[in-house]
Design goal:
230 residues; mainly alpha; two-stranded antiparallel sheet; 8 helices; 2 strands; 45% helix
Length: 230
């Protein structure tokens, strides 16, 4: 294969990945998947998985970016107990941001809109009206059903219990290249990296209310997190 042909194929792959990512982001904002990306009348040719809710996990394109970003590999440089405490505090901060902390079973059994579900056997898969669509966001970290299915299979999680929800949230953080930042207390950097996972975080860009950074840092500190950023 000639070099020019290889570059052409790589460029085409990047265009497709960007289009897929844009489609998923649009669907997360309530816009029809592929709207403005495929010509009118062609949307029916899009793959079936393009419809429905957005996915909080990364695309292949985003995985490449994360793997090529130097900060993904920045050393933690804090004791293991501090790293673990910072992870717990960051999860508490996400629950605060998503509005689930302190509700029901401290958020673990909370649906979008503050309803509650009864069983931790699996994601409740209840679709709650949201603007002109619905959302299956559930649990302390408001994980969507399709996101849950992917992470559950990836980690081999047995249920939707609090421990499994915590593990899933940590994995979503890791996928964005932010776990080391969370452990080390590089909190602002970590928030910036995971903003696309949780719509309530500043910079998420989903046309939904976003928490102020100062409020998040205060919640993080109150939960025992240590920030190492200047």
């Amino acid at each position: 294969m000639t070099q020019s042909r290889l570059l052409f194929l790589l460029a085409g792959a990047v265009v497709v990945l960007v289009a897929v990512d844009l489609a998923k982001r649009q669907q997360g904002q309530g816009a029809p998947a592929w709207d403005g990306i495929l010509p009118d009348g062609w949307q029916g040719l899009a793959p079936e998985w393009a419809g429905g809710e957005t996915d909080q996990t990364t695309t292949i394109f985003e995985d490449v970016i994360v793997s090529l970003t130097p900060s993904t590999y920045a050393p933690v440089n804090v004791p293991a107990d501090v790293a673990a405490s910072n992870v717990r505090a960051f999860l508490d901060m996400i629950a605060f941001s998503e509005g689930t902390k302190g509700h029901g079973d401290d958020g673990y059994n909370v649906l979008y809109g503050y309803g509650e579900f009864d069983s931790y056997a699996d994601h409740p898969r209840q679709y709650i009206p949201f603007r002109n669509t619905t959302t299956s966001a559930a649990g302390r970290y408001q994980i969507l059903a399709r996101t849950w299915d992917g992470v559950r299979g990836k980690l081999g999680l047995p249920d939707f219990s609090p421990a499994s929800q915590d593990a899933a949230a940590v994995e979503l953080i890791r996928e964005r290249g932010a776990l080391g930042d969370v452990q080390a207390g590089r909190t602002v950097q970590a928030i910036n990296k995971v903003a696309k996972v949780w719509a309530s975080l500043p910079g998420a860009g989903y046309n939904q209310p976003e928490r102020k950074l100062s409020a998040l840092l205060s919640a993080y500190a109150s939960a025992g997190g240590q920030t190492t950023e200047a």
